[in-house]
Protein backbone atom coordinates (compact mmCIF):
# COMPACT_ATOMS: atom_id res chain seq x y z
CA UNK A 1 0.00 0.00 0.00
CA UNK A 2 1.22 3.52 -0.74
CA UNK A 3 -0.06 6.91 0.33
CA UNK A 4 0.57 10.16 -1.48
CA UNK A 5 -0.84 13.66 -1.93
CA UNK A 6 -2.60 14.84 -5.08
CA UNK A 7 -0.14 17.70 -5.52
CA UNK A 8 2.62 15.12 -5.97
CA UNK A 9 1.25 12.32 -8.17
CA UNK A 10 3.12 9.06 -7.61
CA UNK A 11 2.15 7.63 -11.00
CA UNK A 12 1.30 9.20 -14.35
CA UNK A 13 -2.36 8.75 -15.18
CA UNK A 14 -1.92 8.90 -18.96
CA UNK A 15 -3.42 5.95 -20.86
CA UNK A 16 -0.24 5.73 -22.93
CA UNK A 17 1.43 4.49 -19.74
CA UNK A 18 -0.87 1.48 -19.34
CA UNK A 19 1.99 -1.03 -19.09
CA UNK A 20 3.92 1.06 -16.58
CA UNK A 21 0.74 1.53 -14.55
CA UNK A 22 0.14 -2.23 -14.49
CA UNK A 23 3.64 -2.76 -13.16
CA UNK A 24 3.14 -0.07 -10.53
CA UNK A 25 -0.19 -1.56 -9.46
CA UNK A 26 1.38 -4.98 -8.95
CA UNK A 27 3.91 -3.38 -6.61
CA UNK A 28 1.24 -1.98 -4.28
CA UNK A 29 1.55 -4.93 -1.91
CA UNK A 30 3.75 -3.52 0.85
CA UNK A 31 2.49 -4.05 4.37
CA UNK A 32 2.71 -0.49 5.67
CA UNK A 33 1.78 3.00 4.52
CA UNK A 34 4.48 5.15 2.95
CA UNK A 35 4.06 8.88 2.39
CA UNK A 36 5.69 11.08 -0.20
CA UNK A 37 8.36 13.36 1.24
CA UNK A 38 6.87 16.66 2.41
CA UNK A 39 7.52 19.42 4.88
CA UNK A 40 7.99 18.53 8.56
CA UNK A 41 4.46 19.66 9.39
CA UNK A 42 1.23 19.88 7.37
CA UNK A 43 0.83 23.12 5.41
CA UNK A 44 -0.94 25.98 7.15
CA UNK A 45 -3.27 28.55 5.68
CA UNK A 46 -3.04 32.28 6.12
CA UNK A 47 -5.39 32.15 9.11
CA UNK A 48 -3.00 29.79 10.90
CA UNK A 49 -5.27 26.78 10.62
CA UNK A 50 -3.99 23.48 9.31
CA UNK A 51 -5.25 22.34 5.91
CA UNK A 52 -8.20 19.97 5.77
CA UNK A 53 -7.47 16.38 4.83
CA UNK A 54 -9.76 14.23 2.69
CA UNK A 55 -8.60 10.66 2.03
CA UNK A 56 -9.39 8.48 -0.98
CA UNK A 57 -8.75 4.72 -0.89
CA UNK A 58 -8.12 3.30 -4.37
CA UNK A 59 -7.90 -0.34 -5.48
CA UNK A 60 -5.30 -0.55 -8.25
CA UNK A 61 -5.25 -4.31 -8.86
CA UNK A 62 -5.35 -5.46 -12.49
CA UNK A 63 -9.10 -6.06 -12.68
CA UNK A 64 -9.90 -2.65 -11.18
CA UNK A 65 -7.24 -0.34 -12.55
CA UNK A 66 -9.01 0.91 -15.70
CA UNK A 67 -11.91 2.17 -13.57
CA UNK A 68 -9.86 3.25 -10.54
CA UNK A 69 -7.22 5.11 -12.54
CA UNK A 70 -9.74 7.28 -14.39
CA UNK A 71 -11.85 7.81 -11.28
CA UNK A 72 -8.74 8.93 -9.38
CA UNK A 73 -7.73 11.33 -12.16
CA UNK A 74 -11.18 12.92 -12.01
CA UNK A 75 -11.03 13.32 -8.24
CA UNK A 76 -7.54 14.78 -8.32
CA UNK A 77 -8.57 17.26 -10.98
CA UNK A 78 -11.49 18.41 -8.83
CA UNK A 79 -9.42 18.89 -5.68
CA UNK A 80 -6.58 20.67 -7.47
CA UNK A 81 -9.08 22.94 -9.23
CA UNK A 82 -10.80 23.67 -5.88
CA UNK A 83 -7.52 24.61 -4.21
CA UNK A 84 -6.54 26.78 -7.17
CA UNK A 85 -9.78 28.69 -6.53
CA UNK A 86 -9.10 29.20 -2.83
CA UNK A 87 -10.10 25.90 -1.24
CA UNK A 88 -12.96 25.63 1.27
CA UNK A 89 -13.60 28.82 3.28
CA UNK A 90 -10.04 29.85 2.48
CA UNK A 91 -8.56 26.56 3.67
CA UNK A 92 -6.58 24.23 1.45
CA UNK A 93 -7.92 20.70 1.09
CA UNK A 94 -5.11 18.15 1.21
CA UNK A 95 -6.24 15.19 -0.91
CA UNK A 96 -4.47 12.06 0.33
CA UNK A 97 -4.67 8.97 -1.87
CA UNK A 98 -4.12 5.57 -0.27
CA UNK A 99 -3.48 2.72 -2.70
CA UNK A 100 -4.53 -0.80 -1.76
CA UNK A 101 -4.47 -4.28 -3.27
CA UNK A 102 -8.12 -4.76 -2.36
CA UNK A 103 -7.51 -7.67 0.03
CA UNK A 104 -9.24 -7.60 3.45
CA UNK A 105 -5.85 -7.03 5.08
CA UNK A 106 -4.93 -4.25 2.64
CA UNK A 107 -8.29 -2.53 3.05
CA UNK A 108 -8.08 -2.71 6.83
CA UNK A 109 -4.58 -1.18 6.76
CA UNK A 110 -5.74 1.61 4.41
CA UNK A 111 -8.84 2.32 6.50
CA UNK A 112 -6.73 2.47 9.68
CA UNK A 113 -4.19 4.75 7.99
CA UNK A 114 -6.93 7.25 7.20
CA UNK A 115 -8.34 7.09 10.74
CA UNK A 116 -4.91 7.69 12.26
CA UNK A 117 -4.64 11.12 10.61
CA UNK A 118 -6.31 13.53 13.04
CA UNK A 119 -6.85 16.17 10.33
CA UNK A 120 -8.67 13.68 8.05
CA UNK A 121 -12.36 14.52 8.13
CA UNK A 122 -13.79 12.17 5.49
CA UNK A 123 -13.17 9.35 3.07
CA UNK A 124 -14.26 10.47 -0.39
CA UNK A 125 -14.65 8.62 -3.69
CA UNK A 126 -13.25 5.26 -2.62
CA UNK A 127 -12.96 2.92 -5.64
CA UNK A 128 -13.50 0.17 -7.00
CA UNK A 129 -16.66 -1.63 -6.12
CA UNK A 130 -15.21 -4.57 -4.15
CA UNK A 131 -12.93 -2.24 -2.18
CA UNK A 132 -15.78 0.16 -1.44
CA UNK A 133 -17.97 -2.73 -0.25
CA UNK A 134 -15.14 -3.91 2.01
CA UNK A 135 -14.78 -0.42 3.47
CA UNK A 136 -18.52 -0.26 4.14
CA UNK A 137 -18.21 -3.48 6.14
CA UNK A 138 -15.25 -2.06 8.08
CA UNK A 139 -17.16 1.15 8.81
CA UNK A 140 -20.16 -0.75 10.13
CA UNK A 141 -18.29 -3.23 12.30
CA UNK A 142 -15.63 -0.91 13.73
CA UNK A 143 -17.79 1.19 16.04
CA UNK A 144 -15.20 3.95 16.06
CA UNK A 145 -15.62 6.71 18.62
CA UNK A 146 -14.77 9.22 15.88
CA UNK A 147 -16.19 7.74 12.65
CA UNK A 148 -15.08 8.94 9.23
CA UNK A 149 -17.90 9.53 6.76
CA UNK A 150 -17.58 7.42 3.60
CA UNK A 151 -18.74 9.84 0.88
CA UNK A 152 -19.64 9.01 -2.74
CA UNK A 153 -17.97 5.60 -2.98
CA UNK A 154 -17.96 3.68 -6.29
CA UNK A 155 -20.40 1.15 -4.88
CA UNK A 156 -22.80 -0.99 -6.93
CA UNK A 157 -24.91 -2.54 -4.16
CA UNK A 158 -27.28 -0.44 -2.07
CA UNK A 159 -26.34 0.04 1.58
CA UNK A 160 -28.57 -0.97 4.46
CA UNK A 161 -30.16 1.54 6.84
CA UNK A 162 -27.55 0.68 9.45
CA UNK A 163 -24.68 1.21 6.98
CA UNK A 164 -26.24 4.48 5.82
CA UNK A 165 -25.34 6.06 9.17
CA UNK A 166 -21.81 6.65 7.86
CA UNK A 167 -22.02 5.76 4.13
CA UNK A 168 -23.46 8.29 1.68
CA UNK A 169 -24.24 7.03 -1.82
CA UNK A 170 -24.17 9.34 -4.80
CA UNK A 171 -24.14 6.99 -7.81
CA UNK A 172 -26.97 4.58 -8.75
CA UNK A 173 -26.03 0.93 -8.22
CA UNK A 174 -26.33 -2.16 -10.39
CA UNK A 175 -30.04 -2.65 -9.74
CA UNK A 176 -30.90 0.73 -11.28
CA UNK A 177 -28.29 0.38 -14.03
CA UNK A 178 -29.60 -3.06 -15.03
CA UNK A 179 -33.20 -1.84 -15.05
CA UNK A 180 -32.21 1.08 -17.28
CA UNK A 181 -30.22 -1.13 -19.66
CA UNK A 182 -32.98 -3.71 -20.02
CA UNK A 183 -35.76 -1.12 -20.32
CA UNK A 184 -34.02 0.51 -23.27
CA UNK A 185 -34.21 -2.72 -25.26
CA UNK A 186 -37.63 -3.78 -24.00
CA UNK A 187 -38.99 -0.60 -25.56
CA UNK A 188 -37.70 -1.85 -28.93
CA UNK A 189 -39.81 -4.99 -28.77
CA UNK A 190 -37.12 -7.40 -27.58
CA UNK A 191 -38.60 -10.35 -25.69
CA UNK A 192 -35.50 -12.26 -24.58
CA UNK A 193 -31.98 -11.30 -23.53
CA UNK A 194 -28.95 -13.38 -22.78
CA UNK A 195 -27.02 -12.66 -19.59
CA UNK A 196 -23.32 -13.32 -19.02
CA UNK A 197 -21.68 -12.88 -15.62
CA UNK A 198 -17.91 -12.44 -15.50
CA UNK A 199 -17.58 -14.90 -12.62
CA UNK A 200 -19.56 -17.01 -10.18
CA UNK A 201 -19.08 -14.33 -7.52
CA UNK A 202 -20.49 -11.61 -9.78
CA UNK A 203 -23.41 -13.89 -10.65
CA UNK A 204 -24.17 -14.44 -6.96
CA UNK A 205 -24.15 -10.67 -6.36
CA UNK A 206 -26.24 -9.56 -9.34
CA UNK A 207 -28.44 -12.39 -10.65
CA UNK A 208 -31.43 -11.44 -8.50
CA UNK A 209 -31.28 -7.85 -9.81
CA UNK A 210 -31.27 -9.11 -13.41
CA UNK A 211 -34.28 -11.38 -12.94
CA UNK A 212 -36.17 -8.69 -11.05
CA UNK A 213 -35.58 -6.06 -13.75
CA UNK A 214 -36.41 -8.46 -16.59
CA UNK A 215 -39.63 -9.64 -14.93
CA UNK A 216 -40.83 -6.09 -14.33
CA UNK A 217 -40.47 -5.40 -18.07
CA UNK A 218 -41.99 -8.64 -19.31
CA UNK A 219 -38.67 -9.97 -20.61
CA UNK A 220 -37.16 -13.43 -20.38
CA UNK A 221 -33.56 -13.44 -19.13
CA UNK A 222 -31.55 -16.52 -20.07
CA UNK A 223 -28.36 -17.01 -18.07
CA UNK A 224 -25.54 -18.14 -20.35
CA UNK A 225 -22.56 -20.25 -19.18
CA UNK A 226 -19.75 -18.57 -17.26
CA UNK A 227 -16.68 -17.50 -19.26
CA UNK A 228 -14.05 -20.24 -19.26
CA UNK A 229 -16.65 -22.99 -19.57
CA UNK A 230 -15.65 -25.86 -21.89
CA UNK A 231 -17.50 -28.27 -24.15
CA UNK A 232 -20.99 -27.69 -25.53
CA UNK A 233 -21.63 -24.95 -22.97
CA UNK A 234 -18.67 -22.99 -24.34
CA UNK A 235 -20.21 -23.10 -27.81
CA UNK A 236 -23.44 -21.69 -26.39
CA UNK A 237 -21.41 -18.79 -24.99
CA UNK A 238 -19.57 -18.12 -28.26
CA UNK A 239 -22.62 -18.57 -30.51
CA UNK A 240 -25.59 -17.23 -28.54
CA UNK A 241 -29.04 -17.18 -30.15
CA UNK A 242 -29.89 -13.85 -28.49
CA UNK A 243 -29.05 -10.58 -30.21
CA UNK A 244 -29.09 -8.63 -26.92
CA UNK A 245 -26.65 -9.79 -24.24
CA UNK A 246 -26.28 -8.17 -20.83
CA UNK A 247 -22.70 -8.53 -19.56
CA UNK A 248 -22.00 -8.00 -15.86
CA UNK A 249 -18.29 -7.61 -15.14
CA UNK A 250 -15.25 -5.45 -15.86
CA UNK A 251 -13.33 -4.35 -18.95
CA UNK A 252 -10.74 -7.18 -19.17
CA UNK A 253 -13.44 -9.85 -18.77
CA UNK A 254 -15.68 -8.16 -21.35
CA UNK A 255 -12.83 -7.94 -23.85
CA UNK A 256 -12.05 -11.64 -23.39
CA UNK A 257 -15.73 -12.50 -23.89
CA UNK A 258 -16.44 -10.34 -26.94
CA UNK A 259 -13.20 -11.26 -28.74
CA UNK A 260 -14.60 -14.80 -29.17
CA UNK A 261 -18.22 -13.85 -29.72
CA UNK A 262 -19.87 -14.69 -33.04
CA UNK A 263 -22.92 -12.64 -34.02
CA UNK A 264 -25.96 -14.53 -35.36
CA UNK A 265 -25.81 -14.78 -39.16
CA UNK A 266 -27.06 -11.65 -40.84
CA UNK A 267 -27.89 -9.88 -37.58
CA UNK A 268 -26.25 -7.29 -35.34
CA UNK A 269 -25.46 -8.35 -31.79
CA UNK A 270 -25.53 -5.79 -28.97
CA UNK A 271 -23.61 -6.43 -25.75
CA UNK A 272 -24.85 -4.21 -22.94
CA UNK A 273 -22.38 -3.66 -20.09
CA UNK A 274 -22.56 -1.72 -16.83
CA UNK A 275 -20.50 1.03 -15.20
CA UNK A 276 -17.37 -1.03 -14.52
CA UNK A 277 -16.64 -1.17 -18.26
CA UNK A 278 -14.40 1.58 -19.62
CA UNK A 279 -15.20 1.98 -23.32
CA UNK A 280 -12.11 4.11 -23.96
CA UNK A 281 -9.83 1.34 -22.70
CA UNK A 282 -11.88 -1.32 -24.48
CA UNK A 283 -11.50 0.56 -27.77
CA UNK A 284 -7.73 0.65 -27.29
CA UNK A 285 -7.62 -3.08 -26.57
CA UNK A 286 -9.33 -3.67 -29.94
CA UNK A 287 -10.49 -6.98 -31.31
CA UNK A 288 -14.27 -6.43 -31.37
CA UNK A 289 -15.61 -8.93 -33.94
CA UNK A 290 -17.71 -7.98 -36.94
CA UNK A 291 -21.37 -7.48 -36.17
CA UNK A 292 -20.80 -6.73 -32.46
CA UNK A 293 -21.57 -3.36 -30.85
CA UNK A 294 -21.02 -2.68 -27.16
CA UNK A 295 -23.21 -0.38 -25.06
CA UNK A 296 -22.06 0.75 -21.61
CA UNK A 297 -24.49 2.02 -19.02
CA UNK A 298 -23.00 4.71 -16.80
CA UNK A 299 -24.27 6.45 -13.64
CA UNK A 300 -23.21 9.94 -14.71
CA UNK A 301 -24.08 12.36 -17.53
CA UNK A 302 -22.57 11.79 -20.97
CA UNK A 303 -19.05 13.22 -21.17
CA UNK A 304 -20.22 15.17 -24.23
CA UNK A 305 -23.01 16.82 -22.22
CA UNK A 306 -23.21 20.60 -21.85
CA UNK A 307 -23.98 20.37 -18.11
CA UNK A 308 -21.79 22.73 -16.05
CA UNK A 309 -20.23 19.86 -14.07
CA UNK A 310 -19.20 18.10 -17.28
CA UNK A 311 -17.69 21.26 -18.72
CA UNK A 312 -15.85 21.86 -15.44
CA UNK A 313 -14.54 18.29 -15.45
CA UNK A 314 -13.24 18.50 -19.00
CA UNK A 315 -11.59 21.86 -18.32
CA UNK A 316 -9.92 20.71 -15.08
CA UNK A 317 -8.78 17.40 -16.59
CA UNK A 318 -7.26 19.23 -19.54
CA UNK A 319 -5.52 21.67 -17.18
CA UNK A 320 -4.04 19.19 -14.73
CA UNK A 321 -3.67 15.89 -16.65
CA UNK A 322 -2.81 14.77 -20.17
CA UNK A 323 -5.81 12.47 -20.13
CA UNK A 324 -8.93 11.88 -22.22
CA UNK A 325 -12.28 12.32 -20.42
CA UNK A 326 -14.27 9.21 -19.46
CA UNK A 327 -17.46 8.44 -17.51
CA UNK A 328 -15.40 6.94 -14.69
CA UNK A 329 -13.27 10.10 -14.54
CA UNK A 330 -16.40 12.25 -14.46
CA UNK A 331 -17.71 10.11 -11.58
CA UNK A 332 -14.49 10.74 -9.63
CA UNK A 333 -14.80 14.46 -10.31
CA UNK A 334 -18.43 14.48 -9.11
CA UNK A 335 -17.48 12.53 -5.97
CA UNK A 336 -14.91 15.17 -5.02
CA UNK A 337 -17.16 18.10 -5.94
CA UNK A 338 -20.04 16.68 -3.88
CA UNK A 339 -17.71 16.26 -0.90
CA UNK A 340 -16.50 19.83 -1.32
CA UNK A 341 -20.11 21.13 -1.52
CA UNK A 342 -20.91 19.48 1.81
CA UNK A 343 -17.74 20.89 3.37
CA UNK A 344 -18.53 24.39 2.12
CA UNK A 345 -22.01 24.30 3.62
CA UNK A 346 -20.89 23.56 7.18
CA UNK A 347 -21.15 26.45 9.62
CA UNK A 348 -18.70 26.35 12.48
CA UNK A 349 -15.61 24.16 12.85
CA UNK A 350 -14.80 21.68 10.08
CA UNK A 351 -14.34 18.37 11.88
CA UNK A 352 -15.17 14.70 11.40
CA UNK A 353 -18.23 15.14 13.57
CA UNK A 354 -19.52 18.25 11.76
CA UNK A 355 -18.91 16.62 8.37
CA UNK A 356 -20.81 13.49 9.40
CA UNK A 357 -23.66 15.54 10.83
CA UNK A 358 -23.95 17.61 7.65
CA UNK A 359 -24.08 14.49 5.49
CA UNK A 360 -26.66 12.81 7.72
CA UNK A 361 -29.06 15.69 7.06
CA UNK A 362 -29.05 14.51 3.41
CA UNK A 363 -29.97 17.87 1.96
CA UNK A 364 -30.39 18.04 -1.81
CA UNK A 365 -27.17 19.13 -3.52
CA UNK A 366 -26.88 20.29 -7.11
CA UNK A 367 -23.37 19.62 -8.39
CA UNK A 368 -23.32 21.60 -11.61
CA UNK A 369 -26.52 20.03 -12.91
CA UNK A 370 -25.96 16.62 -11.33
CA UNK A 371 -28.45 16.50 -8.46
CA UNK A 372 -27.98 14.31 -5.40
CA UNK A 373 -31.28 13.93 -3.55
CA UNK A 374 -32.52 11.52 -0.90
CA UNK A 375 -35.77 10.14 0.45
CA UNK A 376 -34.88 9.03 3.94
CA UNK A 377 -31.52 7.29 3.64
CA UNK A 378 -32.03 6.22 0.01
CA UNK A 379 -31.24 8.11 -3.18
CA UNK A 380 -34.50 9.42 -4.63
CA UNK A 381 -33.14 10.11 -8.09
CA UNK A 382 -30.74 8.40 -10.45
CA UNK A 383 -28.78 9.76 -13.40
CA UNK A 384 -28.14 6.90 -15.83
CA UNK A 385 -26.94 7.26 -19.43
CA UNK A 386 -25.49 4.99 -22.13
CA UNK A 387 -22.69 5.19 -24.67
CA UNK A 388 -21.92 2.82 -27.55
CA UNK A 389 -18.64 1.43 -28.88
CA UNK A 390 -19.20 0.56 -32.53
CA UNK A 391 -17.36 -2.25 -34.30
CA UNK A 392 -15.13 0.29 -36.05
CA UNK A 393 -13.92 1.66 -32.69
CA UNK A 394 -16.01 4.84 -32.46
CA UNK A 395 -17.66 5.85 -29.17
CA UNK A 396 -21.12 7.38 -29.63
CA UNK A 397 -22.71 9.29 -26.76
From TrEMBL:
Gene3D superfamilies reported for this sequence: 3.40.50.2300
Domain Leucine-binding protein: 54-366
Keywords attached to this entry: Signal
SUPFAM superfamilies, A to Z: Periplasmic binding protein-like I
Family: Belongs to the leucine-binding protein family.
Protein name per UniProt: ABC-type branched-chain amino acid transport system, substrate-binding protein
Lineage of the organism: Bacteria, Pseudomonadati, Pseudomonadota, Betaproteobacteria, Burkholderiales
Amino acid sequence: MAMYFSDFPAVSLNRRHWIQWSAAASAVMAGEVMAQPSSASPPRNSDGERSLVVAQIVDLTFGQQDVSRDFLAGSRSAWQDLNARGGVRGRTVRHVTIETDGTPQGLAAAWQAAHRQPECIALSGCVGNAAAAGLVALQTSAGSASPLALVAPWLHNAVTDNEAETVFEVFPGHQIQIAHAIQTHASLGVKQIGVVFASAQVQHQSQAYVFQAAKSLGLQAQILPLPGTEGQAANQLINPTQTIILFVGGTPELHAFTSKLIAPAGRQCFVVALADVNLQVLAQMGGTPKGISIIATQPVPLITSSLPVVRAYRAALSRFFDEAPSPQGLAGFIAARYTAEILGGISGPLTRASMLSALQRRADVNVGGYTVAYQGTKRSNAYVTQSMLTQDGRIIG
